[in-house]
Design goal:
This protein has helices spanning 4-14, 23-34, 59-65, 70-82, 97-103, 117-129, 142-150, 177-187, 206-216; strands spanning 39-41, 56-58, 87-91, 109-114, 135-139, 168-171, 196-200, 223-226, 230-234, 242-245. The protein is an alpha/beta fold. It has a single domain (4-245), classed as Vaccinia Virus protein VP39 (Rossmann fold, 3-Layer(aba) Sandwich).
């Protein structure tokens, strides 16, 4: 491993086995969902589900099969603290397990987007129940909120310079190649030199693998890490372009 930055990230964050204060909240949040027997009607805007055959889904089953695992939630929380993430954007709230991991430190500000009203309703209830006050939940199609954030909906003559930048953008809303690439390109202006983008399920399908390959070849991407389920990209202009594969 040639990059000191990636070496430190892997050894001090990815492979950190110590206990962290945020873990208790994350575990309680997820366990509370696993006990929820309510059945909701899910509106799926992405690539669909490999687990569910119906849109009528129990909350506990969504949490178990479609939500981020406890292991991944803890990892995400460590990443937030290790990289000192202050302002984050999440595409695809679902039940909010990843949202809880991002904001469990009570200091990171999160904007999260969910298109399904019923799923978002459960997430909002959970945010309130666990006193997660730094979450701005936008219930809308991802492309609509992205347009608001980037100013894409404004006429060219009155477009304003984007002032809001995100330290982290977590892509987990649509596991289709074209949508993933569209969101990536449109959100690039919202990144700064030290931002990180995390893409979920980069090996979900052949198309997602193609999307990942195209993303890491982008000239602005200087460091990429394939952890099999998640793909990380960094824009550190001071670094030589390198790609890493790290099993986490």
């Amino acid at each position: 491993m040639h990059s000191p930055f990636v070496y430190e990230l892997a050894t001090r964050c990815f492979y950190d086995t110590s206990e962290h204060s945020e873990y208790g909240l994350i575990k309680d949040y997820r366990n509370d969902l696993l006990r929820n027997r309510e059945i909701i009607e899910v509106e799926d805007f992405g690539a669909g589900s490999k687990v569910f055959s119906s849109n009528q889904r129990p909350v506990h089953a969504i949490a178990r099969n479609a939500g981020v695992t406890l292991f991944r939630a803890k990892l995400l929380s460590r990443i937030i603290n290790y990289l000192n993430i202050e302002n984050a954007l999440e595409l695809g709230t679902s039940l909010g397990i990843a949202s809880a991991a991002i904001t469990a430190n009570n200091s990171t500000k999160l904007t999260t987007i969910e298109g399904c009203k019923e799923t978002a309703k459960i997430a909002r209830q959970q945010f309130q129940k666990f006193h997660l006050k730094n979450v701005d939940l936008r219930i809308d199609k991802i492309e609509n909120v992205v347009s608001d954030l980037t100013g894409d909906h404004r006429p060219t003559k009155i477009k304003q310079k984007i002032s809001e930048k995100f330290d982290l953008i977590y892509f987990d809303g649509n596991h289709q190649k074209q949508a993933t690439l569209d969101y990536f390109h449109r959100l690039l202006p919202l990144a700064h030199n030290d931002s990180v983008f995390i893409f979920d399920d980069i090996h979900w399908s052949a198309e997602m693998q193609e999307a990942w390959k195209e993303i890491i070849e982008h000239p602005k991407v200087r460091v990429s890490i394939d952890t099999f389920q998640w793909g990380f990209i960094f824009f550190r202009s001071e670094q030589v372009k390198e790609h890493f594969t790290i099993r986490v």
